[in-house]
């Protein structure tokens, strides 16, 4: 069997976590004939800190940024020192060099007080560059033949910085050239997730949480037998454990169900992860790096539906509802086209859509261009928006066969004001739009009713 193994931030957070990771990879290598590609995130919390540092630069707070960078460097030095022996000097020198460059860059940005999306990507990418270098060195010092591969020389993306999209053909060509030979050689290829580069070689990122996506992209290119997502929970759970206490493990689910859940807020999987897996029909497994003996969640094309129930519920918080009413009081011919053209022009994705005869309501989570969107809508419609809303999404293949599930879901939300309700043609999900403040309560009720 051939696999891609992705380890998230908490699975590389400190020397103990990296020791567990080494154990997990060693076990996998004892089972398989082929060496795995290992994709790692930045150490836990590092990307958040880098986001904060970019903000300090934008605010011109050069001194604060320098202090934060020093603390970040110290943390990496401590971890790298603890997990290496003979490769120690070399990896420490690499880490210091990466940070020297970063410190110079952040200083320049702080002088300019301007951080473009492209510069932000350059800052954020350092987390994955150094974490992957440290893990590669740790493998070498624990008798696992490995090679660090700069993910920016493999993952080719467009120039949509901070949310770049992969060029699969170009990436797969690079993977064949730079990754496959390492694996054929019996060595583990270690790459940073989340990061790539444009065809011109400018560093880009896939968006927050994007390491899962990187793993799936490399997995599809290498045509592996399984994409493993190692994280800090047992797998896909029936609800977000930060909102619903003690949700259950979902042992298996379909690609379609997993996509819906990830898209509507199940953070354990980046929403785009499933895409490359579907193209090559590669199973995705979510596993707990603290309990590697567990079987986790297996995501495949044709998973059997959860017996008679929903599969899981997810929620996406902090969304905005926009209500748009045709000023001509009727759905004039072409109204919907004009309306969606506005969202297209401002590159803003719409999640839930409901319509009545004279009005359309949509939800968006990206409000960066909201003012321009409203201005444009106002040229042909009345439009207003309401913030602090949320989407709850109940997912299950069973929704297609059992009409009573829908009624049960609505009944369980009795007395919680629902702003919009929709069920798409796939009938694999029901979405509710409600006040963000009602989310915990509503999630508990739904969870109690179904699980
Ligand atoms: P990693 O750093 O490993 O990528 P993330 O923090 O991105 O980990 O994702 C794992 C987290 O996702 C869990 O700790 C959990 O809090 C959250 N989460 C939200 N919804 C779900 C869900 N339905 N199932 C499992 N985890 C979920
Ligand atoms: N480190 C990046 C983030 O925190 C990518 C990832 O962890 O998947 O968003
Ligand atoms: Mg993640």
Summary of the model, kept short:
It is built from 14 helices and 16 strands. The strands form three sheets. The protein has an eight-stranded mixed sheet, sandwiched between helices. Strands 12-13-11-14-16-15 form a six-stranded antiparallel sheet. It is of the alpha/beta class and 451 residues long.
In words, what does this structure look like?
- The protein has 451 residues and is an alpha/beta fold.
- The protein contains 14 helices and 16 strands.
- It has helices spanning 15-31, 46-58, 62-83, 88-112, 117-141, 168-178, 180-184, 211-222, 255-263, 274-280, 335-345, 370-377, 404-412, 439-450; strands at residues 3-7, 37-40, 146-148, 188-192, 195-197, 203-205, 226-231, 252-254, 284-288, 297-300, 312-326, 353-355, 359-364, 381-395, 418-423, 429-435.
- It has an eight-stranded mixed beta sheet, sandwiched between helices. A six-stranded antiparallel beta sheet has the order 12-13-11-14-16-15.
- Strand 12 and strand 13 (359-364) form a beta hairpin.
- The radius of gyration is 23 Å and the shape is globular.
- The chain starts with a strand and ends with a helix.
- The mean pLDDT is 95.
- Aspartic acid binds next to loops.
Bound molecules: adenosine-5'-diphosphate, aspartic acid, magnesium ion
What can be said about the biggest beta sheet?
8 strands, mixed
What is the overall pLDDT average? 95
Structural class: alpha/beta
If helices are DSSP runs of H or I spanning 4 or more residues, what is the number of helices? 14
Q: Assembly state here?
A: single chain
Return residue spans where pLDDT drops below 50 for at least 5 consecutive residues. none
Kindly provide the radius of gyration, computed on alpha-carbon positions and rounded to a whole number of angstroms: 23 Å
Number of strands: 16
H-E string: EHEHHHHEHHEEEHEEHHEEEHEEHEHEEH
Helix content: 40-55%
Percent in strands: 15-25%
Q: Assign an overall shape.
A: globular
**Termini, distance in Å?**
35 Å
Name the strands of the widest sheet in spatial order: 3-4-2-1-7-9-10-8
């Amino acid at each position: 069997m051939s696999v891609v193994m992705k380890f998230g931030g908490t699975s590389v957070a400190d020397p103990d976590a990296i020791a567990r990771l080494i154990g997990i990879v060693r076990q996998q290598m004892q089972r398989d004939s082929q060496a795995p590609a290992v994709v790692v995130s930045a150490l836990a919390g590092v990307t958040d800190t880098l986001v904060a540092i970019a903000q300090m630069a934008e605010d011109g707070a050069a001194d604060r940024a320098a202090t934060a960078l020093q603390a970040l460097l110290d943390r990496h030095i401590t971890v790298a020192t603890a997990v290496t022996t003979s490769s120690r000097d070399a990896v420490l020198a690499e880490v210091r060099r990466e940070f020297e460059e970063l410190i110079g860059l952040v200083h320049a940005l702080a002088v300019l007080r301007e951080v473009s999306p492209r510069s932000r990507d350059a800052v954020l990418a350092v987390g994955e560059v150094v974490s992957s270098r440290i893990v590669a060195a740790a493998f070498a010092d624990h008798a696992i033949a490995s090679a660090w591969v700069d993910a920016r020389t493999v993952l080719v993306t467009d120039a949509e910085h901070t949310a770049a999209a992969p060029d699969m053909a170009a990436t797969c060509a690079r993977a064949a050239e730079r990754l496959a030979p390492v694996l054929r050689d019996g060595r583990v290829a270690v790459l940073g997730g989340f990061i790539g580069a444009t065809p011109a070689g400018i560093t880009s990122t896939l968006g927050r949480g994007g390491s899962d996506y990187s793993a799936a992209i490399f997995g599809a290119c290498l045509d592996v037998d399984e994409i493993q997502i190692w994280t800090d929970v047992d797998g896909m759970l029936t609800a977000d454990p930060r909102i619903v206490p003690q949700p259950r493990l979902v042992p298996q689910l379909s690609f379609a169900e997993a996509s819906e859940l990830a898209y509507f807020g199940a953070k354990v999987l980046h929403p785009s992860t499933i895409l490359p897996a579907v193209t090559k029909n590669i199973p995705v497994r979510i596993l707990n790096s603290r309990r590697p003996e567990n079987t986790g969640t297996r995501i495949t094309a044709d998973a059997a539906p959860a017996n008679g129930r929903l599969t899981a519920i997810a929620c996406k918080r902090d969304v905005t509802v926009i209500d748009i009413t045709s000023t001509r009081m009727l759905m004039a011919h072409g109204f919907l086209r004009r309306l969606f053209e506005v969202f297209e022009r401002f590159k803003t994705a719409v999640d839930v859509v409901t319509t009545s005869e004279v009005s359309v309501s949509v939800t968006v989570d990206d409000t960066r261009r909201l003012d321009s969107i409203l201005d444009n809508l106002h040229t042909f419609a009345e439009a207003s928006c309401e913030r602090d809303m949320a989407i709850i999404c109940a997912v299950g293949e069973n929704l297609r066969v059992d009409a009573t599930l829908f009624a049960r879901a609505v009944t369980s939300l009795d007395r919680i004001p629902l702003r919009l309700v929709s069920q798409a043609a796939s009938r694999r999900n029901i979405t509710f739009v409600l006040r963000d403040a009602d989310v915990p309560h509503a999630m508990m009720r739904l969870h109690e009713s179904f699980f």
